[in-house]
Each structure stands twice: as C-alpha cells, then as structure tokens.
Q: What sequence folds into this?
C-alpha cells in the first residue's frame, strides 16, 4: 500500500532515549510529523549525528551504558527538563524495560511503545508463553525466569538438552547461549547473566528448548488504543551468527502458503490477546523438516530490521508508533495491507568474519554508502566516526528492494560491492558472498548455516 500522508500528531516534543542509527531514524520520523526532538547522549556520542540532527541534545553521562543510556533517572530528568511530552526508547537499552515504561507514564510522559503492563507481560517469558498457548498458538517448551544456576539445571533437565539460555529483558543475541549438557550450563550461566545485566540493566535469564536446523520467522504487528490490530507480513531472520541477525528479508522465502497464513494469523492472535496498542514483533521458530512452527517471544519495540517491512508495505512503522502513542486510530485495515516485491537488509558491523566476528573499535576514515535504484541506507556513520567498545558495532543497515527476491539479492550484492569503508573491518564482503551462495539463493539456510557452512566457505574463498 502507498504510505498515508504524514500529518501532525498531538505530540509536540519527543525525547529519543537511544543512540546510533535508530536515534537518527526516530528523529527523522518525528521531523516529518512536525514533532520536535531531544536526544540524550553519552560523552562518547555528544558530537555524533543524532546530536546534530535533533533540535536539542542533552549529554547525561559517561560512555558506559549503565551511567547513561540505562540510567532511568537521568533520562527522565532530561525529558522533563526540556519540556518533552513523550519518550521514544528505540531498540535495545531500555526499550523493553517495563519499569522504564511505567516511570515515563508516572511522570506524565507518553511512552512510545506498548503500555507498561503489556511490556511487563511480554517480558515475563512464562506469562508470554501462557498467553500464546491460551490464544491457540503452538508454543516452544521453556522455563519461567530463573534465579540460580541450580534452578536452570533442573529446568533444563525437565526440558531436555540442548537448551538455549536467554536474557529475559532483551534480544540481539546478548546473554544467549546454546548448551548441550549440565556442565556447559553451569559454566555459562553467570557469564550470560553478567552480559544481560550490562546490555539491558537486567541480568535475569531463562532456558528454552533448542531446535536444530530451524528457521527464524517473525510477524510485524501494529495496534492502536482503540482495539485494532493488523499484521504487516512476516520477515525471515534466519541468517545469524551467535544468535545475532546478519540478514533479514520480507516476505519469507520458501515458506508454504498455508504455513505463511497460519504464522501471520498467530501473530495477530497474540497481539490481540496482549491488547497491543503500538508496534511489536511476534517471533516464531520454524522447523522446515516437519513444517511446524512455535511461538518464541514477543518484542515490544521497533525492530532493527523494520525497514524491510516498510519497503514491501509502504508503511512508515516509526511514524505509526508515534501516531498510536498519540492516541490516533490506525488509518488502515488488514485488507488495505499488501506486500509488493521483496526487500533484504544487511547489517554492516565492524566485525571481522575472518577472526570469528570479533568487534573492532576504531575510527572510520572513509565512508561512502551505496546509492542506486531500490537501495536504502539507514546509518549514523560518517567519516571520522569513532567505533567505541561500549556499544554494539553496527555502522549501517543497507536495504535492497526489487520486484522479485532474485532482483533484490542482485541489487544488494551490487550495493555491497559499491560500499566503501576504510579504517575498520566490516561484514560487507562476508554478506556479499553469503547472499550469492546457492543455499541462500534457494532459501534453504537455517540458523546454524553461518557456523556450519557460510563461514567455512567464506574463509576458503578469501584464503
């Protein structure tokens, strides 16, 4: 569908409680709607692109996230002190922290995301699974939130190995590990909790059944405060390394039509059961061998990969988040939504595939993003940008759109070839080779493909 005309909302000034490319994305969406923006920064980001694009920037603390982007009192003080009436959390950091959402509301600020109760219910993995089950959705076996390694060992024994250790408060692969036995679980537990605490300010963990040879399919849903919910199709996020997404696309390839419709319907059913009044994503694991899917979790925030959905639907998801937060009803029904063409996103990070995807801090000396038909680049990067060890290493998201999946792949491969980055290593060449691999072209990759096939093939090509 064509994107509806953007008109002003009831929101006047939004504080952006994030950094990097998503801060830039939110600022631009606000500007298109006539909304002023204030962005909080750490001292590491005080001169960055988001700070220059926003109407005002407030430096709230030093680089460690716990003293800046996770510091709820400092963020609220910045919002109230600059006269903001809303807070957009972006993704990561505090975006799925129900205490932050509730604190915003308690201070009279609009939280641009689901209501705090929904954030809390989605974040409680046991409650989220029970909600999915009550809505008639297949559910993956998992534990409630676990306080100790001993409790995890008991839960894993009940579920059966292998299990996946996951952070209760976030995603992006942080605090996540596949463990094959009790010894591995005991060894990984405290490190996973520490990683989750550092990334999200919440070190709680849980375990769930791990499915081998699986695909990761997620449904984009959108609701308003008037009871309406729609889906905007699904995304395939199967190409991952260490449980972190590398490539995402929409619609999902090589998926039986019956399964596609069932997954989409399940996404809407969960959102309706939750009473979703914003944007969110319902994640599923899909066993291609058995043609079965199961509910994984609900992400109560905008996703990194939202641009692929925007490209195939014409809907500006961040603008719709802002509209829903302002109390506006959805301006379209499910029948108005159609997916046209195909879109693929590649995350460009400063990781070195030849060294196990190790992040590399440094200074970007040359930054020349690709341009061309069907190409979109979401980025905060520019010459002189300093990649610090304090945050994730994402430089940009390159999105390619085409009338068909093959056309989108070809455009992406060409775009990655035109990208010029000097000063830090990136994942661009690895992604370019992976996208042209027969397995990816056929849509048959699974979540372990990079480790088992993609990376070995890449290393052989560059040796």
A:
């Amino acid at each position: 569908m064509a994107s509806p005309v953007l008109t002003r909302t009831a929101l006047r000034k939004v504080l952006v409680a994030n950094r990097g490319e998503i801060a830039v994305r939110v600022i631009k969406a606000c500007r298109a709607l006539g909304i002023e923006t204030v962005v909080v920064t750490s001292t590491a980001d005080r001169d960055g692109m988001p700070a220059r694009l926003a109407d005002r920037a407030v430096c709230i603390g030093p680089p460690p996230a716990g003293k800046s982007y996770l510091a709820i009192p400092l963020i609220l003080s910045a919002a109230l002190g600059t006269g903001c009436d809303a807070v957009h959390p972006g993704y990561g950091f505090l975006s799925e922290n129900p205490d932050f959402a509730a604190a915003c509301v308690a201070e009279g600020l609009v939280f641009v995301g689901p209501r705090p109760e929904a954030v809390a219910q989605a974040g409680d993995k046991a409650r989220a699974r029970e909600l999915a089950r009550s809505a008639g959705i297949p559910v993956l076996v998992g534990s409630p939130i676990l306080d100790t390694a001993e409790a995890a060992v008991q839960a894993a024994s009940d579920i059966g190995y292998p299990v996946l250790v996951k952070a209760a408060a976030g995603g992006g692969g942080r605090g996540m590990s596949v463990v094959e036995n009790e010894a591995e679980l005991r060894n990984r537990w405290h490190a996973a909790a520490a990683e989750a605490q550092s990334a999200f300010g919440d070190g709680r963990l849980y375990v769930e059944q791990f499915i081998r040879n699986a695909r990761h399919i997620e449904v984009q849903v959108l609701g308003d405060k008037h009871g309406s919910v729609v889906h905007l199709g699904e995304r395939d996020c199967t190409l991952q390394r260490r449980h972190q997404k590398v490539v995402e696309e929409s619609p999902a390839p090589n998926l039986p039509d019956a399964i596609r419709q069932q997954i989409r319907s399940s996404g809407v059913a969960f959102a309706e059961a939750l009473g979703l009044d914003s944007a969110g994503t319902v994640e599923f694991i899909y066993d291609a061998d058995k043609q079965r899917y199961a509910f994984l979790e609900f992400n109560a925030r905008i996703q990194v990969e939202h641009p692929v959905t925007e490209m195939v639907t014409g809907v500006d998801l961040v603008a719709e988040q802002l509209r829903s937060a302002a109390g506006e009803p959805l301006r379209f029904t499910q029948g108005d939504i159609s997916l046209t063409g195909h879109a693929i996103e590649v995350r460009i990070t400063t990781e070195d595939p030849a060294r196990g995807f190790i992040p590399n801090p440094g200074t970007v000396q040359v930054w020349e993003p690709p341009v061309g038909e069907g190409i979109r680049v979401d980025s905060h990067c520019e010459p002189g940008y300093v990649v610090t060890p304090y945050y994730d290493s994402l430089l940009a998201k390159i999105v390619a759109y085409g009338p068909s999946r093959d056309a989108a792949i070809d455009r992406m491969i060409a775009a990655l070839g035109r990208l010029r980055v000097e000063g830090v290593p990136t994942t661009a060449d690895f992604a370019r080779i992976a996208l042209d691999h027969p397995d990816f072209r056929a849509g048959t990759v699974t979540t372990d493909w990079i480790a088992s096939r993609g990376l070995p093939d890449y290393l052989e090509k560059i040796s």
Notes: Confidence is low (pLDDT under 50) at residues 2-6. Residues 13-112 form a domain with the Rossmann fold fold (CATH 3.40.50.20). The two ends are 46 Å apart (CA to CA).
